[in-house]
Design a protein that fits this description.
The complex is a heterodimer of chains A (about 350) and B (about 130).
Chain A lengths: L1 E3 L6 E8 L1 E7 L4 H11 L2 E2 L5 E9 L14 E3 L2 E6 L2 E6 L4 E5 L4 E6 L5 H22 L3 E3 L2 E3 L6 E6 L6 H9 L11 E6 L2 E6 L3 E4 L26 E4 H4 L7 E12 L5 E5 L2 H9 L8 H14 L4 E7 L9 H12 L2
Parallel strand pairs in A: 2-4, 3-5, 5-10, 13-18, 18-20
Antiparallel strand pairs in A: 1-2, 2-3, 6-7, 7-8, 8-9, 9-10, 11-14, 12-13, 14-15, 15-18, 16-17, 19-20
Helix pairs in contact in A: 1-2
Chain B lengths: L5 E4 L3 E6 L2 E6 L5 E4 L1 H12 L1 E2 H11 L6 H12 L3 E3 L20 E3 L7 E2 L12
Antiparallel strand pairs in B: 1-5, 1-6, 2-3, 3-4, 4-7
Classes of the chains: A alpha+beta (about 350), B alpha+beta (about 130).
Chain lengths: ~350, ~130
């Protein structure tokens, strides 16, 4: 992150978020610090040429456009987004408004006066996540909500897919302890390059639950780390502080794991057929309800899926208590990347 | 049903080639469908707009038996899933595929749709109660 000052704004900050640089102008000098913990998660400098996306964040301002977005383009639990030409119009629950011009790489975020400061911050965050996700897609990258594991000896990777809360991070951590490496636990960018699809890292931080220390003693430091959000016990931890030299920037996906929690046995594994491999990946991509913008995301997943081996891995509730589990997980990974 | 009515894939159905067939995603319902090569060839005809009669003719040229019940079943499914809509375009449909290795057309609806309301623009998961 870099900090400076732009005319008319009291503070400007920049984050290198993979293929794009996010430049934010604030009129409220306290907002950058409040948003830093979110934006720091996406601060992943790449050596490739940067495309700058600019956003101004203006407090107390009201939108000129009074047509409220209905969510035709995309709807999240905090945002309703519509598209008109190259511009996305996004409105949050409490009225944080964003007009994002995709062609000009420029957004204006208007923040209403509202007594609930914490919610205001969260909803600005949601708008910035929209800006980043669409900015990456606009630059030819497909954002995948998934983790990855890379063996010690080469740059092939296994994508780890599961909804939030299923245990991607714990699963990944259990293999990092055995010498495997990663691009991250839940944020990856994918892009077709020639005949293959490559994966790039988008985060340098893990989201770990303090209870992880029960299985992985070296994670005792997690309890003192800052919380990920007010809605979860998970903490934000630097990869390097726990497992040095295990974070890579780039890998070639060769397999996918669909991770599930529960089942009657500590560990169950079954192969995924090609159609379910595609479904597993697509279900981890936030696809807008807009054909023009959905098509390239689907095409990227379809280009990747046929080249992957796949496994559905079901992990029982107390499976990590078993001393043999780590060896069995290693066997699964070796089967996927022979 | 009149076999000579024109039908076209809804504009919010997005398709992409996968293996020998394709996947069709309905952006309105968020359900997606796997089509084998024969079902995909039929779906491609609807991308340009076509009639059911023209679909039967094309399928016969590709190797299907006359009035193959599997074709009727596919057309019924496409209609029932609301993947096509009436088209005012009366032009003859372009037949995008000249030949395929014909087999019974199969369109499989995936059990789990994508989420209509997601956690965030990055996380497509189902939002949980806060």
């Amino acid at each position: 992150m870099t900090v400076s000052k732009t005319s008319g704004f009291s503070r400007t900050v920049c984050y290198d978020c993979g293929p794009i640089t996010l430049r934010l102008d604030f009129d409220d000098p306290t907002l950058p610090d409040a948003l830093h913990s979110l934006l720091n998660q996406y601060d992943a400098p790449w050596s490739s040429p940067e495309i700058i996306y600019h956003a101004s964040i203006e407090t107390g301002a009201k939108p000129r456009n009074t047509v409220r977005p209905t969510g035709r383009y995309l709807q999240s639990y905090r945002l309703r987004v519509d598209r008109s030409g190259d511009t996305l119009h996004s409105l949050s629950e409490i009225g944080v408004w964003m007009d994002f011009d995709l062609a000009r790489h420029s957004a204006r975020i208007l923040v209403p006066d509202h007594p609930d400061r914490e919610t205001v911050i969260e909803e600005i965050e949601q708008q910035l996540v929209l800006l980043l996700a669409r900015g990456w897609a606009n630059s030819g990258w497909t954002p995948l909500h998934g983790g990855s594991l890379i063996p010690p000896e080469d740059d092939r990777c296994v994508l780890v897919c599961a909804p939030s809360g299923v245990g991607k991070t714990t699963f990944i951590a259990s293999l990092l302890r055995q010498g495997w490496r990663t691009l991250g636990d839940d944020k990856i960018l994918l892009r077709r390059e020639g005949n293959q699809v490559i994966a790039r890292a988008m985060a340098r931080r893990f989201h770990l639950h303090p209870a992880t220390v029960r299985w992985f003693p070296e994670t005792f430091v997690v309890a003192d780390a800052p919380r990920y959000s007010r809605w979860t016990e998970k903490r934000v931890v630097q990869f390097e502080s726990l497992w040095p030299d295990r974070l890579l920037n780039r890998a070639v996906p060769m397999a996918v794991i669909r991770l599930e929690r529960g089942g009657s046995l500590p560990l169950m594994v079954e192969p995924l057929d090609p159609t379910h491999i595609f479904a597993t990946l697509l279900q981890q991509v936030a696809v807008p309800s807009d054909a023009q913008h959905a098509r390239p995301l689907m095409a990227c997943v379809a280009a990747l899926a046929p080249h992957l081996r796949g496994a559905r891995v079901m992990i029982g509730e107390n499976a990590f208590d078993l001393p043999t589990l780590s060896t069995r997980l290693l066997d699964i990974m070796r089967d996927l990347l022979p | 049903m009149n076999d000579n009515c024109h039908w076209i894939l809804r504009p919010d159905i997005v398709s992409t080639v996968l293996n020998d067939g394709a996947v069709l995603l309905d952006l309105r319902s968020k359900f997606f469908f796997s089509a084998n090569a024969s079902a995909w060839a039929v779906a491609l005809m609807f991308e340009n707009g076509t009639t059911f009669a023209e679909v039967y003719q094309a399928c016969e040229r590709w190797g299907a038996s006359p009035r193959d019940p599997a074709i009727q079943a596919l057309l019924d499914q496409i209609k029932a899933e609301d993947l096509i809509e009436p088209s005012t375009n009366g032009n003859l449909a372009k037949e995008p595929i000249s030949s395929i290795s014909w087999g019974a057309p199969i369109l499989t609806k995936h059990r789990d749709p994508l989420q209509r309301i997601m956690v965030s623009a990055f996380d497509p998961g189902l939002p949980l109660a806060e």
